[in-house]
Amino acid sequence: MVFSAKTDVGRVRPHNEDCFGSYVSEDGSVLFLVVADGMGGQNAGEVASKMLVDCFMNKTSFLNKKNLTPEQLQDFLTDTIKEANLNILKEAKDNSEQSGMGTTAVACILQEDKLIVANVGDSRAYVSSQSVLAKVTEDHSYVEDLVRKGAISQEQARNHPDKNIITRAVGCMDDVEVDTFVKDFDKNSVLLMCSDGLSNMIEDDYMQRIIRRNKNMDKLAERLIYVAKKNGGTDNITVIVARRSDEVIHG
What we know:
With about 250 residues, this protein is of the alpha+beta class. It has seven helices and twelve strands. The chain has a six-stranded mixed sheet. Strands 2, 3, 4, 5, 6 and 9 form a six-stranded antiparallel sheet that branches. The N and C termini lie close together (about 10 Å).
């Protein structure tokens, strides 16, 4: 696997509440990736996002990856996010300054030619092929609900004043519903994971053009962040990009 993970505070926010993590199995055959976008007063959002990523990293390091099926890996992602949800709830209960904190989550596992994805909130996973950039995840947001109901178009959603209102987050309820997906992932595909600081700043078709023009994963991540900041950079920006390879290279 070849991958790169980068985060940037953007041009407006005073500090970065995004967090990401990566883990490669000892034999290099399985890659674990996670992006979290925190929310809450003071610095609580950055606490929540880091707690989720820490939980993910702690669990993956002890997981026996050999011969696990995609279904078992789906369960692993769901269980880990649910565990992080309880951890964040407890931390918020024990510390009044962190009351109400929460985070989005998008977690991916690349296992040979399979991609296993789990998400909560509006951080996203895409798969880029030669012809199209396909969004794997579905946003859990007020505006996305309007789109699904046919009340507004995708174009109207892009500029909707309430587009940042999410309807599901980790750490906000006793139990959290986690969406999971299993997709084929061939050698010509590129995985893109991001917080909404990227997806709100660059339209999908232009992201696809950037991906097609940048084969180096490190340069690709840097370019995506550069364009998001050039377009306004109104939020923290986190990007993970990955493609299949016989080597494990972290940009």
